[in-house]
Design goal:
A hairpin with a 2-residue loop joins strand 17 and strand 18. The protein is α/β, with parallel strands linked by helices. Strands 3-4-2-5-6-1-7 form a seven-stranded parallel β-sheet. Strands 10-11-9-12-13-8-14 form a seven-stranded parallel β-sheet. It contains 33 helices and 18 strands.
Length: 780
């Protein structure tokens, strides 16, 4: 047993020694590799096994079907293995993910990295979806390595990540969540980091990520290897120096020029694959949804991604077209959804064959969807780089794909000019009017039936208009040329909602006020007489006052309030100016009662009179002759014959016949009401009789005594049933006989009290007591 153990220990030592020798051999091969552009060694290496890679890496790649290298992998991996910093650019779908994952695994393997060494490599992705995809590829090819990898993105359990993040060797993350762990996770240490990778580097350096990346990079060690990968290169050398790329090499696809020349003359640079068929159509803005729906109906057997500019548009288009049932499966994906739902959509869309995915630019970069036939860009991209990334979701890895760009007439000239400058020349397609199908009426019907859908349409309209307003390229996006009313009607809305812009205008206004002198501000606040108004004299508005002055606190336009609430009272002039064709406007008024038509109401002076006045029979008698009233379209109450017309009124017979029917019906109603009233009166009479009998029984049993001082007095007054007789004066009421009784709570009282003919004594116990009680009863 011991010999076997010693033998195994010896085998482990020999295996470790051979592994170290193999690592030394790999390092020598790597150092001998010629990394110059288009060198003979690089051009000869076509497969992964031709590179100086470990057997574990070659095995992991071959098991997952990765044998042949793409151009970016062929030129960048040898440079990365020699520990150079890299700035790499390549076409979309050219395999950039493997180009940086292979060097990460190889570097940590050669350093014999373990869980005790801490974090060795960090990959930062701009979106959660791209981070998830990178993590899945890492798990596939890294099964043979004894390394711990983790995924850290927003939307996951932060506490769960904090308990395990300090054990990770390779971390795939998004900038925001990584910075959060750096601030809050006590055991998270990056001091031993060997490699930093920025996937989609141009997007990571956008305005939304600059502050996060500055904070992250300031905490990382300076002695590290940095790799930057992207499909486009639009950053200056200052941004690259900021990321410590002082000693770096530029690696590009052979179809792309060197980064230095592209910075000087980047208009001649193209990054779209040759297998991508690019085309565009020009339609008016109100016809975009019609164009999209018609295109979907003619391409039901395809896999399609539809790009829109905002999440609110994605939500609205998905919900409306889903109700219209175009005949193909629909999905939607945007950044405001929960992470679990986004992950499920990515998985389902990847496996589906015939499906349409409505999405924002959250999936425009780096996501590898298999077999996407069409990419439809409904809203114009903000720049050429965004166009390239969107179109790159199709025609990946050398496969065929198609891209369709939908432009408005105001966007056509400027956008095409910018595409041509980058050697991108999409082909113009003509629209067949016979194939176009309008869905405006369908949308109006859906919004009429569903207020929530109408609210989504308002939000979609506002988000699109604001997206055009904030665009920097004013030559392409012309805000003043937007047909707002027509576009709102194409979404099914009755009119364009009001929009408050708090962007550049408010900024310029505040800047103007800031730079204005105090004397001018005082003169501006002066009254008509030229007197300066102090702050004390001004009416100060509190938060509560401002809250009550707000309009549409729950929705963004008045249309939703008109749909769900009655319209408020207006003046006659306002009613005349109101648009008669306003969509879904509720015209309701409070109908005032005419005092002349009401009978005189006599206030009853007794409870009996009140009950009598409130009986059904009395109410019908007081109502008198009724009139049949009908409300017209404006909400006015009018007699039936005025609204219905003579012909329709005569269908039910002549006037005398209808009057006789009406009187007969009212008489039947009175008879029914009379029966109900009699039953109620009978029940009340029986209740009174029961109470009277109960009282008499209690008197006989001796439980009532005459009232003394401090004891409760119960009076019974008999009514005559006549209102005039019931309302008698106090003098007359005093003449009536009253019966006073007193309830005795002490049955063992020795006192005997005589009240009327009732004799009360204590319980007889002897014969003399019985004889005395009999004598008193005989005398009475």
């Amino acid at each position: 047993m011991a010999k076997k153990l010693r033998r195994s220990t010896q085998e482990r030592k020999e295996g470790k020694q051979s592994e170290l020798e193999g690592i030394d051999t790999l390092n020598k091969r790597i150092q001998e590799w010629d990394v110059k552009p288009n060198s003979s060694m690089t051009l000869k290496a076509k497969n992964f096994k031709d590179l100086p890679l470990s057997t574990n890496m070659v095995k992991g790649l071959s098991d997952n079907g990765f044998t042949k290298m793409t151009p970016i992998q062929q030129h960048s991996i040898p440079v990365s293995l020699q520990n150079w910093d890299i700035l790499a650019s390549a076409q979309t779908g050219s395999g950039k993910t493997l180009a940086f994952l292979i060097p990460i695994l190889e570097k940590l393997y050669k350093k014999q990295w373990s869980e005790y060494d801490g974090l060795g490599a960090l990959v930062i992705s701009p979106t959660r979806e791209l981070a998830i995809q990178t993590y899945e590829v890492l798990l596939k090819i890294g099964k043979k390595y004894n390394l711990a990898a983790g995924l850290v993105i927003g939307g996951k359990d932060l506490k769960f990540e904090m308990e395990r993040i300090y054990k990770m060797n390779i971390l795939i993350c998004t900038p925001g969540r990584l910075l959060q762990h750096m601030d809050q996770s006590a055991g998270f240490d990056v001091s031993n980091l060997q490699m930093l990778v920025l996937d989609e580097a141009d997007r990571c350096l956008d305005m939304g990520f600059k502050k996060s990346l500055d904070a992250i990079i300031s905490n990382l060690p300076t002695e590290r290897q940095t790799l930057l990968f992207s499909a486009t290169q639009s950053q200056s050398l200052e941004s690259l120096a900021r990321l410590s790329l002082t000693n770096y090499k530029t690696v590009e696809d052979p179809t792309i020029r060197n980064i230095v020349s592209s910075i000087k003359d980047k208009d001649n640079k193209t990054t779209t694959p040759a297998t991508l068929q690019q085309s565009y159509v020009t339609v008016q803005l109100p016809k975009k949804l019609d164009m999209l729906y018609s295109f979907m109906k003619t391409h039901l057997k395809t896999k399609m991604i539809v790009f829109l500019s905002s999440s609110k548009q994605v939500h609205f288009v998905y919900e409306t077209l889903r109700k219209l049932q175009p005949g193909i499966s629909l999905m939607h994906l945007h950044g405001r959804q929960k992470q679990t739902y986004r992950t499920d959509v990515l998985e389902k869309f990847s496996k589906a064959q015939h499906v349409v995915l409505f999405a924002t630019d959250v999936v425009a970069r780096g996501i590898d969807f298999p077999a996407v036939d069409w990419v439809v860009q409904v809203d114009c991209p903000e720049d050429v780089d965004t166009y390239i990334h969107r179109a790159g979701r199709s025609a990946r890895n050398g496969k065929n794909g198609k891209n369709l760009l939908i432009l408005t007439p105001s966007e056509e000239e400027g956008m095409l000019k910018r595409l041509v400058n980058r050697n991108i020349e999409p082909k113009k397609l003509n629209i067949k009017e016979s194939k176009m199908r309008s869905i405006t009426n369908n949308l109006q019907s859906l919004l009429f039936q569903d207020p929530e859908l109408k609210y989504l349409a308002q939000k979609a309209f506002i988000s699109y208009v604001k997206s055009i307003y904030v665009q920097k390229d004013k030559e392409v996006f012309k805000f003043d040329d937007l047909p707002s009313e027509e576009f709102a009607q194409s979404l099914g809305l009755p009119g364009a909602p009001k929009i408050k812009f708090k962007g550049m205008k408010s900024f310029e206004k505040s800047k103007e006020l800031k730079n204005m002198s105090r004397q001018l501000l005082l003169l501006k606040n002066a009254d008509e007489n030229g007197d300066i108004i102090s702050k004390k004299d001004k009416q100060v508005k509190t938060k509560i006052d401002k809250m009550f002055e707000r309009k549409n606190q729950t929705v963004l336009s008045e249309h939703y309030l008109n749909l769900t609430q009655p319209s408020s009272k207006k003046n006659k002039n306002e009613e005349e100016e109101e648009d008669e064709d306003d969509f879904m406007t509720v015209k309701r008024k409070n109908h005032d009662l005419v005092e002349e038509e009401l009978p005189e109401l006599l206030i009853p002076t007794s409870k009996r009179a009140q009950k009598k006045a409130l009986s059904k029979k009395q109410i019908l008698l007081n109502q008198g002759s009724s009139k049949k009233l009908v409300f017209d379209d404006e909400g006015n109450a009018k007699p039936a014959y005025q609204v219905l017309g003579e012909e329709q009124f005569a269908k039910d017979g002549d006037l005398e016949t209808q009057l006789e029917k009406f009187i007969t019906k009212e008489n039947e109603n009175m008879k029914v009401a009379d029966i109900d009233d009699k039953e109620v009166a009978k029940a009340k009479k029986q209740e009174k009789k029961r109470k009277r009998q109960e009282r008499q029984r209690m008197e006989v049993e001796g439980k009532y005594e005459s009232s003394d001082e401090g004891e409760q007095e119960v009076r019974y007054v008999a009514g005559t049933g006549n209102l005039d007789e019931d309302m008698v004066s106090e003098d007359e009421s005093e003449k009536r006989p009253r019966k006073k009784v007193k309830y005795s709570r002490n049955d063992n009282s020795e006192s005997e009290v005589e009240s009327d003919n009732v004799v009360q004594v204590e319980n007889p116990e002897t014969l003399e007591d019985l004889e005395s009680l009999t004598a008193k009863l005989l005398q009475g």
